[in-house]
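Task 17 of the worksheet. Students: predict the tertiary structure of the chain below and write it out as structure tokens. Keep your answer in the requested format; marks are given for formatting as well as content.
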Amino acid sequence: MKEYLLYGQVQQRLSDHMRETGKALSFFDAVAALWREKQFQTAPDLPAVSFEAWDAQDMDAFRDYVNRLPVDLDQFYRDFQANRSTRQASRQIPELDVTPMKIAEDQAMGIHEHESFEMLYVMQGRATLALNGATRPLPSGGLCLVAPSFRHDVVAEAGSVVVSITFAEHTIESTLYRLLSGENIMSDFFRASLSRGSRGYILFHLPPSQQVRLLIRSIFHEGYCRQDYARQICTSYIEILFSYLLRSSALDYERYSEDRSEDRSPALLPIVQYIQANYRTTSLQEIAARFHYEPSYLGKLIKSHLGKNYTEIISDLRVTEAKGLLRSTGLSMEKIAEQTGFQSAIHFSRSFRKKTGLSPSQYRKERLREERPGYDRKD
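Model answer:
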């Protein structure tokens, strides 16, 4: 059985707390309080919510739809049991492909960071992006991409509608590979963030756009309709949205980066990009020859600046691609091993289990159960 709250319950608790005390509560703390009071609901599965009928111009209707969204308590139990703070819990965003949500009103997260990318879009009103010691206004139509491990906070003004869509790194690496292969401001942002070369954000200045709202509607619908292949479709809408951004506002953006020179040598970025493009077939010796390094020195340089040795980086990239193939294709383990560059199906299985704790076949079954309600269920 699944235990869950409704988003509207959490929003009501946040607003009540603000009205009664004059102080803002975090979303996590509101969820924890409702859980302790046993205000949650129980059902065999989380309820589905369809956004197909939402008129993308009607923000009051959008709030009504969002208030019916389930808040899955499975995502919070470990944080409750470990007595984590809001900031600690914020780093534990589940590694889901895409997670859309509305920024709650009357909440206070505080400066925090998480391990996923985040997209913020102001559909109505205004918001403020808070950095360490500085703030940046987000006007209506502003769309901001925030890199993992970037310390920030976002506060929506009263009456504003701001959506947050988080997506895991593997979504960018394995699904949006066409975007990464291009040469544009967005691909550069993602590559630098994935290589841990820099962290920060890109803010696109867009006029209020019906096209963007329609894409947001589709992302929310696929995120909560609980239909077969919803995650794959949802990720495709993200790719369309990013492509639309590049076409509409290539010259109207601003970028903020915190250079992580302690983590990366500037000369290492081309090498990282080459590894990301050729990890299936390349070797440390081949890369060293191409970039005029001695192999053992290059290996030490990679370890020093990226925190992982060459073999670990290659294995991570191959496993990430394999996850995408296991989720989206019916290829055999032998074919996936060959396609991702593993020496054999046995080598693939051992490496995959080491990284994920699951065998490839177990991972495929788990993802099918999540993406296709009723899969593998015995009547």
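Marker's comment: Residues 260-264 have pLDDT under 50 and may be disordered. The CA atoms of residues 8 and 64 lie 8 Å apart.
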